[in-house]
Amino acid sequence: MNEQLFRAVDDRVDELVALTVDLIRFPTVNPPGDAYTPCAEFIARALGSRGYETRLIRGEGTPGDNDKYPRTNVVARRAGRGPGPTVHFNSHIDVVETGDAWTVDAFSGLVRDGKVYGRGACDMKGGMAASIIAADAFMAVYPDYPGAIEVSGTVDEESGGFGGVAYLARQGLFSKPRVDHVIIPEPLNKDRICLGHRGVWWAEIETMGRIAHGSMPFLGDSAIRHMGAVLHAFEEELFPALDRKQTRMPVVPEGARRSTMNINSIHGGQTEDYFPGLPAPNVPDSARIVIDRRFLIEEDIAEVKGEIRSILERLKRERPRFDYAIRDLMEVLPLMTEQDAPVPRALAEGIRGVFGKDPDYVISPGTYDQKHIARIGHLHDCVAYGPGILDLAHQPDEWVGIDDMVQSAKVMATSLDVLLRGAAA
Ligand SMILES: [Zn+2]
Q1: What is the mean pLDDT of residues 222-251?
Q2: Cα 322 to ligand 1 centre (Å)
Q3: What is the pTM (predicted TM-score) of this model?
């Protein structure tokens, strides 16, 4: 436990709260990707005044990028006094839409009863502020630190991260030798280290039919009835099989500690738009569903796809005139950083120092920007760690606790001490 570092964080609580409030006041709602540039410019100014070299980098040509809604990222670096590794804190600046159920202003940054309220307070502007203050405290106590500290504010995490971390990773900004260790202050709770996430496969399944007059359906072939057979097979075979697939990944919440699948949407038949209130009088020749299959480190993506395909193939053999197509929409492989990699070890040291206990190691049910750092940057010493209660993310009246931010800033400052100065872990 490093009392000096902890005191340096405690001395900066007002600044930490003010920074969180300032960040919340930018309504960086995605989609469409509002206020990205002013928010990134604000962060660049805040870090520039702390001695960082800063760059604004636009994710040119990435999904959603245009002159009205440019995908503006900020990357900042503050080199120390000698050679050494680089520790990078990456936070996304985008937030999801507010929804209607708020009882406080979503973008005023209200401070009340030890909490800062607002869209993005928890996910993850509070985490970003905590990481900046952690670095401030560390640099104040150890002005001659070796290596470098980087902080980035990136866009579009909530929509896949293509204009943000993925774009920057393609420019080499998340690879060795520039960067060695990455901490993503996502709201996973202050005493937990998130080592990675389950895999994702999104696909569209279409069943085919033949159009005919709705009064004589026997002359056609209903794609919707064929899709009904697919859904029936999923209910009877697939969902029970997924429930049985347990994992050694410590996914939270515990309900996600197995394979899951959501059916995101279903569309079938002709559109009703032409005749408001009136359905088309036809036998549907097409029906489509989009599936969102989340899979485990123990599962191979080829098996995951094969499981669905074998059900569809069996229907094709057994069901007259059944035909289908399947289209991949997105795939992300599962990720799990080892517990004894340098970043989780350094954070564990901080958690022991602040809370007097070992961390819980968790896996996120859904993906986040770590995927791009691993797949594109080939950097594997990366985890998510930050303040904020995961369940509050994306909810109305989202908040982050001030004490939680302070404690997690102490954990992050300790991890800088371990990673850059080699303090005993
Ligand atoms: Zn987030």
Answers
A1: 97
A2: 42
A3: 0.90
